[in-house]
Design a protein that fits this description.
This protein is of the alpha/beta class. The protein has 13 helices and 12 strands. Bound molecules: iron/sulfur cluster (SF4).
């Protein structure tokens, strides 16, 4: 069978460009590592140089799809002439078949039917919406400047226009509770995005949250709370068969330098998967009599998430008295993230 390779995504950061204001949690310069002076917006020549550089470094693997991604700002809130300049810079690569598609991120309130038609005409196939929350009170407390109704309308318009739609959700925003986060995930899942990313709200130097944190007006989630909350949200999307393509921000030196507080871990997604795996194993073992011994079958590739970081999950199972009920079996035929107890002991 031919190997299926993930696309090469060439990121082009337009930090904060197009944003009508700063959301309380945001400091794109730290998140993307790009110091974007307002007086030095990204120009077409820089787009071309970035694409050429990535294509040269990636070699000539023609089996790999290539996408150009405009991230880090509100693309469709830019002046249309400027959007056109950036998108037109990619056109020769699209026409030559060297780039298959453009993707971009933007705000839900910066999408209308004319925008969708414009994007399609310029080779955009994927739009990621900064949804962040599906609760108007949380959106208002986070300075987002849009509502849940804007998200609903944007997803409908993009899907009707034949676009793939991604939704970026945050956990731990001001005013959010565990219940409202879960309800928000359900509400987003019902809109049927093609994929989702989940990011924990972090306190980043230079953001509004940093001042609120310093004044004692905002308390971020702990790492444990963030992992547990993200695991509950991922379970919702798993249930609706909506891929969660990323959990946690991409680690970078600039992010780690400017991080003041919050549930950050360079392997946040792994922690969430380990937590979910632990929950499944715990339920399986808790359902059998205390004096039984059964074989727990897992995929060999799941061994590290079964153990958890620094063997934490194994220690928890032992502390709960559950590890004595099982012997571990690594089965290459077992699907990933689907531990099961074998019928015979
Ligand atoms: S979160 Fe998005 S919309 Fe808000 S300031 Fe940052 S880049 Fe702009």
């Amino acid at each position: 069978m031919a190997e299926v390779r993930s696309p090469l995504v060439i990121p082009i950061f337009i930090a904060h460009q197009g944003c009508p204001h700063r959301c309380v949690f945001c400091n794109q310069e730290s998140i993307t590592g790009r110091r974007e002076a307002a007086s030095q917006p990204m120009r077409a020549a820089e787009v071309v140089a970035t694409i050429d550089g990535w294509l040269a470094r990636s070699g000539s693997d023609s089996r790999r799809a290539v996408q150009v991604a405009f991230y880090g700002g509100s693309f469709t809130a830019l002046a249309q002439g400027y959007q056109e300049e950036l998108l037109t810079a990619v056109r020769p690569y699209l026409e030559a078949g060297r780039v298959g598609m453009i993707r971009l991120s933007t705000r839900p309130d910066a999408i209308d039917a004319a925008t969708v038609a414009f994007l399609r005409a310029h080779g955009v196939g994927v739009v990621e919406l900064g949804v962040q929350a599906m609760d108007d009170r949380v959106l208002a407390a986070s300075g987002r400047g849009h509502t849940v109704a804007d998200v609903e309308a944007a997803v409908r318009l993009l899907k009707a226009g034949g676009m793939r739609v991604g939704g970026q959700l945050m956990i731990g925003l001001p005013g959010e509770s565990s219940g409202s986060a879960l309800a928000g995930a359900l509400a987003l899942a019902r809109l049927g995005p093609d994929f989702v990313r989940i990011y924990p709200a972090l306190v980043i130097r230079g953001s509004v949250l940093a001042s609120r944190f310093a004044a004692g007006l905002y308390r971020p989630l702990s790492l444990l709370q963030g992992v547990a909350r993200c695991a509950r949200l991922k379970a919702v999307f798993d249930h609706h068969r909506i891929p969660v393509v990323r959990m946690g921000l991409q680690p970078s030196p600039s992010l780690e330098r400017d991080l003041l507080a919050g549930p950050y871990h360079p392997a946040f997604g792994e922690l969430v998967l380990a937590r979910m795996f632990f929950n499944r194993v715990r339920s399986l073992l808790a359902a059998i009599p205390a004096d039984s011994h059964r074989t727990l079958s897992i995929a060999p590739a799941d061994l590290s998430i079964f153990r958890g970081q620094r063997n934490l999950s194994v220690q928890r199972l032992a502390a709960l008295g559950l590890s004595a009920r099982m012997r571990l079996h690594l089965d290459p035929g077992q699907p990933r993230q689907a531990p099961r107890l074998l019928d015979s002991p």
